[in-house]
Design brief:
Layout lengths: L4 E9 L2 E6 L2 E7 L1 H11 L4 E5 L11 H10 L4 E4 L5 H9 L4 E4 L1 H5 L2 H10 L4 E10 L2 E6 L4 E6 H11 L3 E6 L11 H10 L4 E4 L5 H9 L5 E4 L1 H4 L5 H10 L7
Parallel strand pairs: 1-4, 1-12, 4-5, 5-6, 6-7, 7-10, 10-11, 11-12
Antiparallel strand pairs: 1-2, 2-3, 7-8, 8-9
């Protein structure tokens, strides 16, 4: 049985880790390099590092921060934000990233997913999808959730899988930062639709939310930010609770 993964997410803006609610009202959560180091020690399975304003500001991910974080961790490490070419990914992987996450750039030019999978292998290509439920339909949004599209979440996820994505990182904009639980119905439907791992994101507030997303949402991994950054849930305690609920985790 494959173990379920717990993944702290470091959203970076102006060199600091930040966290908001429904993608707005950001507040400072600390130094990303220090946080990354702590999480690696405290039992995180992977880390995700997202330069959340790179796309909106039309610039590339901060390479120097990637180098510093990579020096401090011994667990797989995904980097996203402003990635739009094979060259961008080549630099990030050489700087220490294990995987890359693409979002807006993949929607604007879907061939990018094929190019990255062909060049570097599907195992290091994560397609992040930010979606909002509007009138019962899950619709994809771009640029940190600020630009709506006419793409349906499930159709887009199936397309990027076909193009070579190795994983889907699905963030529910409705649930993000609310601490009311993950979007498990949408996650379960994604799991039924796809044959690649799905990372649940948006809504973690309690240990039970993680239990529910693995059992009801059929997620392969769960990503969270504020509950970890602000010390509300300890990863070690979370994993013990998951194990008690017969969910396979790496202790």
């Amino acid at each position: 049985m494959l173990t379920k993964r717990i993944i702290p997410c470091l959203d970076i803006k102006n060199g600091r880790t930040v966290k908001g609610v429904n993608f707005v009202n950001l507040r400072d959560a600390g130094d990303p390099v220090e946080l990354a180091k702590q999480y690696a020690v405290k039992g995180a399975d992977e880390l995700v590092f997202l330069d959340i304003s790179a796309t909106l500001e039309g610039r590339k991910t901060m390479i120097d921060m990637v180098l510093k974080v990579a020096e401090q961790v011994n667990i797989p490490f995904t980097v996203g934000g402003g990635i739009s070419s094979v060259e961008d990914v080549d630099i990030l992987l050489k700087s220490g990233a294990d995987k890359v996450s693409v979002n807006s750039s993949a929607v604007k030019r879907p061939e990018l997913v094929n190019e990255l999978a062909n060049k570097f292998g599907s195992q290091c290509v994560v397609v992040a999808i930010d979606a909002k439920q509007i009138d019962g339909e899950w619709m994809v949004h771009l640029a940190g959730g600020s630009i709506p599209t006419n793409l349906n979440l499930f159709d887009w996820a199936k397309e990027v899988e076909r193009r070579g994505a190795g994983e889907i990182l699905f963030t529910s904009m409705n649930n993000d930062g609310t601490k009311a639980g993950f979007a498990n119905d949408a996650l379960a439907k994604l799991s039924e639709t796809l044959n690649i791992p799905i990372i649940a994101s948006g809504g973690a507030g309690t240990v039970q939310h993680f239990v529910d997303t693995f059992k009801d949402g059929k997620a392969d991994a769960a990503l969270a930010a504020s509950v970890f950054h602000f010390g509300e849930i300890a990863i070690k305690d979370l994993k013990e609770a998951l194990k008690d609920n017969n969910i396979a985790v790496r202790l």
